[in-house]
Design a protein that fits this description.
mainly alpha; 5 helices; about 35% helix
Length: about 120
């Protein structure tokens, strides 16, 4: 799903044109064997000219930019939003030590501060 979104809504779709770039570079290499990739990129991206293969040049990646997907959300003119404060009803407080095994007097007898004689 992410790849479909990226291809349709961003310029990532330009990366799908890389095979055209490679084929066009190979064609230029056949015409001029001394042409480097850097010279090819400079010719088509730095100083583009309208020559015999202009239509192919326009198909190269990042030469022309496609319109991105635009999503527009509108609301009805009679739209209203009502916000109410919701209070969570807390149950009665439960004392965690109401247990048959808990004897408050025993614990109070054990834990006493030191006494001076």
């Amino acid at each position: 799903m992410l790849s479909v979104y990226l291809v349709s809504a961003t310029e990532v779709s330009q990366l799908l044109k890389i095979p055209i770039l490679v084929k066009h570079f190979v064609d230029h290499r056949q015409q001029d064997p001394g042409m480097t990739l850097w010279a090819f990129l400079k010719m088509h991206y730095d100083h583009p000219v309208k020559d015999a293969d202009y239509q192919t040049d326009q198909q190269l990646p990042f030469v022309t930019h496609s319109g991105s997907l635009t999503l527009v959300f509108t609301t009805d003119t009679h739209f209203s939003l009502e916000i109410k404060k919701w209070v969570f009803p807390f149950p009665k407080r439960i004392t965690p030590y109401k247990n048959v095994f808990y004897d408050k007097d025993v614990f109070n007898a054990i834990w006493q501060p030191p006494r001076a004689c």
